Structure formats: C-alpha cells, structure tokens
Amino acid sequence: MMPRAFFVAATGQNIGKTTMCLGLLAGLKKRFSSVGFFKPVGQEHVETETGVRVDKDVVLFKSHFNLPHSYEEMSPVLFPRGLTRDYLDGKVDSRDLVATISRSFDAIAQKSAITIVEGTGHTGVGSIVELNNAQVAALLNIPVILIASGGLGSSFDELTLNHTQCEKYGVRVAGVILNRVLDDKREMIVHYMNMALERWKVPLLGCIPYDAFLSTPTMLDFELLFQTKLLTGAEYRLRHFHHIRLVASSVEMVRVPNQLIITPADREDIVLATLTHFWDTKISHPDDDIEAGIILTGKNPPKESSLEQIRRARIPMLHAPVSSFIAMKMINTYTTKIRKDDTAKIEEAIQVVEEHIDFDTLLKALES
C-alpha cells in the first residue's frame, strides 16, 4: 500500500513554505489520527539537547506538535557547508544519501496516517548533488504541492519553471497554494489563477492573505542578524516590533507603540531622551505595555552608565558594531523566520493558513 503523503516545495526562497506546513499540519491533525512531518534534506541546522544536529524546522514541528518520531528519522540528511565540493570530489556517495532518506521516510510514513514532506527552497535546489526536491519527491513516489507568491503573471511564470522540473522527473503536481495575497487583489487573483492552472488540471488549494505580523522581527532575529547577544532585557528576546526608526536627534522622539530605536552608541543624548520618554509614558500610562527596544550602533560599545539606565528600564538592547546606515540596510533586507520559541507567531501562522486552505480539495487531489 502506497503511503499517504505529499511534498511541499516553493517556487523560490522565502516564499513561506514553513508557514504553509504549520497550517497544513494543524489542519490535518484535526482530520487524521496521526500526522508525520519529514524534512529529507536540511540546510540550516541546529543542535538538539541530546547533541543531535537536525534541520531547524524539524525542531520547530516536533516541539510544537509533540510529534513522536525521532529527530534522526525526521531529518535524515543535512547539507553542511562544503558538501557540494565533497560530492564533486567523489567523497560523498549519493546512493548512501538516497538510502538514508528512503529508510527514514518509510519509518515515519508507516507510523502516520498522512505525512507532510517539506522540501528546501524551489524544486531545483540540490541539483548539484543530484538530489533536488523534484528528484526526492520522485524517489518517495509522492505528489508535490507548490507554494508561490500571491501574484498572477510573475507567480505563474515561477510556477511554470517548477512544474516543468516536476514533469522532468515524473512527479505529479497535486495543487498550488498562493501566499501573501493582498485583500484588494484576492478576487481577481483567484479567478484568473484558476483559469491559468486549468491547463495543467491542477487545483488552487488556497490563497493565504498577507499578514504583517508574520514579518515582524524580534530581538532574537536581531541577535542572529548581527551575531551578538542582548546586553539588557534578555527576558524580552521574543518581543515583536511593528515600527523601526533610525533616530539621529533627540527631538525626533515621538510616542509610537511597539517601537524599536536605532541610534549610535555614542549619542548619549538620544539614549537619555529615549529613557526619559519611556519613563514619562510609564508614569502617565502605568497600565499600558510600553514595548520598547534599542539597537546601539558603532564600533565602540555603549558606556556602562548608559547600560545601567537601560537595564533599570528593562528595555531589550543590543550593540551592533556597524554604522546606523549599515544596520538599517541589513534589517531592511533581512527575512524573519518562525522559530520554535515564538509561540505567538506560530499560532498566528497556523490560524491564517488553516483558515484559508481547502482541505477537502487537497485530499481529493492527493487521491487522484
């Protein structure tokens, strides 16, 4: 009996594949007695409490959904830096990787009523080691669901490239999900995308609306971005920020809720103005949550006197040893990821995705 499973691939990087898998798994758990999650090939990996190195998404899914499968089964193959050179030099045998993936998938699929297999990027990722997403889906003999950005023309162009890759390896595309669809374009996109997909006889399984909260960074994101640690307010590492402002003068301080201030570490006048504003607001609105944050920039770290005042206010703050301009540039080009401890963002992702997926059509498409 063939396992009931499907492969989730995106048309590019940072399309929202993990977000989709969160909503899909949550919805399927309501319809099946057991749901498996499998990441055959991982790139970004972390070390678990037992010392096992696995894909970071596996840690997220296993911990949040309390999945029974072992880390080794869920994340059988990792692509560390240098693996492609080792493969081309003949130091890595793809047959070993294939056997490991097949064995792990069988172990999870046999214990699950349905299994979600999350790919890495678009269908061509991994081609240099002859183990791209389309090849892995063909190896496991399961259909693919493609995730694309919520547009029309450019989105379909990207879908076409990935659909062609699937056809090359004999993999059936069972459906398409569009992510981050703008409300004012939703009706138009649904109508015309269904028309376009008709040529492939592939259903549109969902249009997930754009959700600004899912893109809001946390202080943890900035720790990872600047490769540093919070100097104050570590307990607020998962605080989200809707507003990020580069402040060059103390007169720019205005009351904006949930605001992250970026300013040079040697501008003690701005730090003082930020703290004064914080305490004034705290006194006048004692019941309000003032979710402030600070990133101090520049080669030299902040003075201990400034650190002590910020600690007293319990404001999360870190020092980024770059200019304010470079810091803003890095932040503006940074794509936030959903992390296992960020329960607020996980629950938001599950709710927005699950609500907009047609699970009846999805299950029919898998049985076709």
Oligomer: single chain
Largest sheet: 6 strands, parallel
Mean pLDDT: 93
How does the overall form come out from the CA principal axes?
globular
Output the CATH homologous superfamily of the largest domain.
P-loop containing nucleotide triphosphate hydrolases
Unreliable spans are none
* Helix and strand element order: EHEEEEHHEHHEHEHEHEHEEHEHEHHH
- Helix/strand-derived category reads alpha/beta
For the record, give the distance between the C-alpha atoms at the N and C termini, rounded to a whole number: 15 Å
Beta-strand content estimate: 15-25%
User: What is the number of domains?
Assistant: 2
Number of separate strands: 14
Q: What's the arrangement of strands in the largest beta sheet?
A: 2-7-1-8-9-10
The CATH architecture of the largest domain would be 3-Layer(aba) Sandwich
The CATH class name of the largest domain reads Alpha Beta
* Number of helices in the DSSP assignment: 14
Looking at CATH, which topology of the largest domain would you report?
Rossmann fold
Helix content: 40-55%
| Radius of gyration over all CA atoms, rounded | 23 Å
